[in-house]
Structures are given as C-alpha cells and as structure tokens.
Write a structure and sequence with these properties.
Chain A: Its main location: membrane. Chain A: One of its GO terms (molecular function) is transmembrane transporter activity. Chain A: It comes from Maritimibacter fusiformis. The complex is a heterodimer. Chain A is flat and about 70 Å long. Chain A has eight helices and no strands. The longest helix of chain A is centred in the first third of the chain and has 40 residues, at 3-42. Helix content of chain A is 82%, strand content 0%. Chain A is mainly alpha-helical. The longest helix of chain B is centred in the N-terminal third of the chain and has 35 residues, at 12-46. Chain B has one domain: MetI-like (MetI-like fold, Orthogonal Bundle), CATH 1.10.3720. Helices cover 80% and strands 0% of the residues of chain B. Chain B has nine helices and no strands. By secondary structure, chain B is mostly helical. Chain B has helices at residues 12-46, 49-63, 67-80, 87-113, 116-124, 129-144, 146-159, 171-182, 185-217. Classes of the chains: A mainly alpha, B mainly alpha.
C-alpha cells in the first residue's frame, strides 16, 4: 500500500467529501419536500392527485436513477432546462429519493390507527386540525428510522453524479485511479470518508429517534 | 432544439441488443449475489472468528460505500493485479458481490429464525453439520426471504445501469452510443428508461407469482 501517495492526495479527497456532504444535505431537503408532497398526493381525496402520486412513485422507482439524471442533465437543454452539473445532481437525486420517501412517509401515516383521527374529530377538531395535531406528530416518530434508511441510500447514491462530472468523492477517486493506477488506495481514501459521513449521519438519526420516543 | 422521436426506430437494433445485455448482466449478477449471499451468511454464522473477520470487514466496506466506487475498484483493481477481465465479467462480479452482501444480511436473519430444533433433529438423524445446513436449515431460511431478496434483485436491475461507466455495452451505454450519433439525449434516455421500466414490471410480476406460490406451499 502506497501510504506516501495517500498522504499526498488526501486533501483533495477531503475537499471532495465536502461536496458529497453538500450534495447529501441538499438532496435530503429536496427529497423530504418531494416525499411530503408525494405522500399528500397519494393520500388525497382527489383521484387525479392520487393517480399523479402513484405514477411519480412507480416511474421513478421503476427506472435507474442514473438514467433519470442523464435525462435531466443531457436531455434537459432540449426541453429548455439548462442546469449546471451540481444543480442537476441535486434536483435529479432529490426527485429520485423523494419517490422512496413518499412511500416511507405514506406508510407511517397510514400506520396510525384510524381511531386516533376519529377520536380527534369527535372532540370537535377539524379534518386539518386532527391531522396536524394528532396524526402527524405520531406518524413523524414512526418515520425517523425508515427515513434514515432512505438517507443512508441517498448518501451512497450521490456517487451517481460522478458520471456527469461533479467533483465529489467518487469522481475524485476515479480521476486519481486513472492518473496513479492505485485503485485500492484511492478506494480506501474515498471509502473511509463515505463511511465517516454515513456513520455520523446514522448516529444523528439514532439520536433523533431516541429523542422522539415517548416511552 | 425540440424533440424528435422519429430517429429512434433506426437505432432500435442497438437498443434491443442493449436490453439483452442488461437482462444477461442482471441475471448473472443475481445468481452470483444469491449464492454469494448464502455463502457469506454461512461464514458469518458458523465459522471461527479468524475466518469471519475478513468477511465482516469486506461486508462493512461494501455496505458503507457506493456501488459505483466499488465497480471502479474491481475493474481497475483486477487489472492492477494482472487479471484483465472483460468489462462484462467485472460488472457481473461487482454487482453480484455488492448485492451478495445485502442478501447475506437477509439470509443470516432468516437462518437464525429457523428453529434450532431443525438443526438438532437433522443432526440426530445422522446428518453432518454441513449436510444439515445444506439440506435442512438453509433451504428453509432462503424460502423465508425470497420476497426481500426479490426486491434486492429489482434494485440490482436498476443499478446495472452503472456498469455502463466501466464500458459494458448494456442498455444505458447503447443509448449513449445512439446519442453519440444523433445528438438526441432526451429521446434515447427516455427510450432506455421505458425499457428498464418494462423489465422492472416483468420482474415484479414474476416476483409476485413466486410469493403467491410460497404462500400457498405453507
């Protein structure tokens, strides 16, 4: 193992890790927004909205994220959407993970017993109030862990922006493998950084989950 | 520039060839990940810690890093140690190992859940430990996790698009080739997505049938 080389190039990997973290954070935020909208659509009273929500989940989960990203980044200009690689990465990955989060959020909401909502309604709360004050707080607790699983997948998924030349961890590893012919060393550098990011995120989610517990 | 799907039919042969390669690579990697998953699970549960340790390390590394990075490691790493495999083989190995790790997690849980009495009964009947595992415990455990393993295989199909990056001429790379000649990325990527979607639907259909069979057999 060429430790000297690793010591020489690791600052570039650290810089790339920052980009991976930025991508992960922004994608998480967009994913949560899309997931909430998606879940709302899927649980809507209106058939048209339910249908749109179902189509969103089905199409996005039924096709590769890489292709979705390519359609947005390379195909976008043809339909008037011109994005730089980083923005395309965030939007593409966010819309993608949003479909998975839609199912997570929807699952947590329908897991809350119907009686809870009926009881709230009986107490004179409006439909919106009963959802906001009774169903959602309970569902939110149930969501934390499965959303954590989505976020874990999302962090690893940010590697998909390497082929559209966003200079994040995987792209950096690929470039240095090409110029140094040391695939194992470069894998290790990038891999350790990914695992640190995933570990810290996992601890954060476990902490949130503990705090949200009632008992 | 506008959209013009009329250029697609001329390249349909390239795309369909890509579809075949995608199905081939998915099938190859699925088989490898299935048996690899069983292998890793048995090692994790039944071997001495000295043997177990490197496997744990490998598992840990493969679960914590992106598949794309692993593909680069396998493709270029094998070349470095003097094994020059065709991209297709490297792709099957990379995808197969990646999903073997995930399958192993499922199978481990299932093996533990199979009643201890099953192993004891098999041993009492004179089967060796290996035989008992192979003929009694593992088959029952695997049956229990066919549905989640099936979901992993559907994820594998979608992740097979990543091997285009190391130069396997599957569906995604075929679309790229057509784009290189026509400069129509939107049209060809949408067509590729449509094919993935159809294969995906087919796999889901098969999986549901298998699930129903298992349910009925119980």
């Amino acid at each position: 193992m060429d430790v000297d080389l690793m010591m020489r190039v690791y600052p570039f990997f650290l810089k790339a890790a920052v980009v991976t973290i930025e991508l992960s954070v922004l994608t998480t935020i967009l994913g949560l927004i899309m997931g909430s909208l998606g879940a709302a659509a899927r649980l809507s009273r209106f058939a048209a909205l339910r249908w749109i929500g179902a189509a969103y989940v089905s199409v996005i989960r039924g096709t590769p994220a890489l292709i979705q990203l390519f359609i947005l980044y390379f195909g976008g200009p043809q339909i008037g959407i011109q994005l730089d690689a980083f923005s395309a990465g965030v939007i593409g990955l966010g819309v993608n993970i949003g479909a998975y989060m839609t199912e997570t959020i929807r699952g947590a909401i329908i897991a809350i017993d119907k009686g809870q909502r009926e009881a709230a309604r009986t107490l004179g709360m409006s439909q919106v109030q009963s959802f906001r004050k009774v169903v959602l707080p309970q569902a939110a607790r149930l969501m934390i862990r499965p959303l954590g699983v989505n976020i874990n997948a999302l962090i690893k998924g940010t590697a998909l922006v390497a082929p559209i030349s966003v200079i994040e961890l995987t792209y950096t590893a690929q470039r240095y493998i090409g110029s140094t012919y040391k695939p194992f060393e470069m894998f290790l550098l990038a891999g350790v950084l990914y695992m640190v990011i995933i570990y810290v995120t996992g601890r954060g989610i476990a902490w949130l989950d503990r705090r949200a517990r009632i008992v | 520039m506008g959209l013009d799907f009329s250029v697609v039919p001329k390249f349909l042969d390239i795309i369909l060839l890509g579809v075949l390669w995608t199905i081939g690579i998915t099938a190859g990697a699925a088989i490898l990940s299935f048996f690899g998953g069983i292998f890793f699970a048995v090692i994790a549960l039944y071997t001495h810690w000295i043997i177990r340790l490197p496997f744990r390390l490998f598992e840990w590394l493969f679960m914590g890093t992106p598949l794309l990075l692993q593909l680069f490691l396998i493709y270029f790493g094998l070349v470095q140690v003097g094994i020059d495999l065709p991209a297709f083989v490297a792709g099957v190995i990379g995808l197969g190992l990646h999903f073997a790790v995930y399958n192993s997690e499922l199978i481990q849980t299932a093996i533990v859940a199979v009643d201890r009495g099953q192993m004891e009964a098999a041993r009492t009947l004179g089967l060796s430990r290996g035989q008992a595992l192979r003929k009694v415990v593992v088959p029952q455990a695997v049956r229990d996790v066919i549905p989640p393993i099936g979901n992993n295989m559907i994820a594998l199909l979608k992740d097979s698009a990543l091997v285009s990056v190391i130069g396997v001429s599957e569906l995604t790379l075929s679309a790229q080739r057509a784009i290189g000649r026509t400069y129509r990325p939107f049209e060809f990527y949408v067509v590729a997505a449509a094919f993935y979607y159809v294969i995906n639907l087919g796999m889901e259909w098969v999986l549901r049938r298998i699930e129903r069979r298992i349910q009925a057999a119980r």
